[in-house]
Fold:
Amino acid sequence: MGSNSFHLVIAREQDGSIQILHKEKQLVQLADGLDNDNVLSDAAITRGIACLQEFKQRFSSLPIPQVRMVATYTLRVAKNRDAFLQAAQQVLPYPIEVVSGHEEARLIYSGIAHTQVLAARNLIIDIGGGSTEVVVGSRTRASSLSSLRCGCVSYNQRFFKDGVISAAAFNAALSAADKQFASLSKEYFTGNWDLTLGSSGSVKAICEALLQFFGDDTVTMARLKQLKQKLIAWGHINKIQLDNVDSKRTPLLPAGLAILISFFRRLPVISLEFANGALREGVLYELAGIGTYSDVRQRTVDSLAQLYHIDHQHAEKVRNTAITLFNGVAESWGLQNHRHTLEYAAILHETGIHISSRAHHKHGAYIIANSDMPGFGEQQQQLLARLIGNQRKKLDLERLTLLEPSEKLLSIRLISLLRLAVLLNLGRIASSVHISNVSCTERGLTLALKEPKHRISLFVKDLQREQKQMANVNFELKFSFA
Structure:
């Protein structure tokens, strides 16, 4: 129950991961009902209770241990919050947890840590409706938690209430936000962040606006200032022309932008990326009792392997072979940063086999390309799907041809390693064909095998077919025998 929106998420725990079954959001703008004395208006209470009455239809039959109701800033500060809580209890017989600012910040960091890979030094900002949480952390552990009294709904009410977007209104909002960020402890001003992330609706809306104007959603101070000038030029909320931004979020854009600009100018931040996870994910993973992995991507791969009943013993054999091949060529081909991608592809290469053994590579590619995969960026997920889809039989020449040259070269090299790893373990229950040496050139790869040619005649035929396939993408495959 946020200061701007109420969110309902119904999910299930599946093989150590969360699967979202249903999501719903209603714009309640609870913070809009707070007066200067922090008394919540009857109209705001009525909006919130009406939303809960509708949400009740979705989940009121669930037992209490499976439900967690969390309220944030507005109910945290409202002097008459008991009036809301008592009315809510009449609608939904579940305890409502009004979390502290520090607990909200902790849950936000936990949600992000569960959904993407974090670095050694992370700085995270979450601009809510009534408060802004700022967190410093290392990997999966938050070290400094802060909650500031500035939010997109409260600042919209204070500085942009009439819908007019002026330089004076922006300056007033920036000045107020500056005072909030200046109150942070010294840990926030050390700089040298490996990763700076922004989460929730306001940052997402700003990223969508930047994407429209600049072609990507990387947030920098220069871009924020340009967006600010565009908003001032439009002059009024009703004149904003942003096709990418949700129309319900647009009125709050100037307030959220002012807070984010203040964040950039008060703290040593160069750029910022959007984080998909936030408070809701933190609540869900804790409710499901799922701990934070040191590597979110590995948890995702392990979960998919369980979900699709991967033959772990065989997958591990293919992985070991793939890494043996990889070690022989990684430095020459510049693949050092892609070791894990090849490993994940080897572990998940038979994901689609329960649908069709004949075309499991195609089904596996579709599953991987369209699954929720916490920890994986879109490009990495698509590369993983591409490897799995080209692990055997004919190469997908049409799609490979459409790739940018560097991406195409990377894909072909990783595909060649995965295809050979699968081929070398084709007997499955038989012992793998052993490699004595791997070498490469810019145009291809040479494989030296320990067995004499006559002992592995069937495998030699497989290799010859593989030579023809790889020749279609101008890749030379050579081999020799003991």
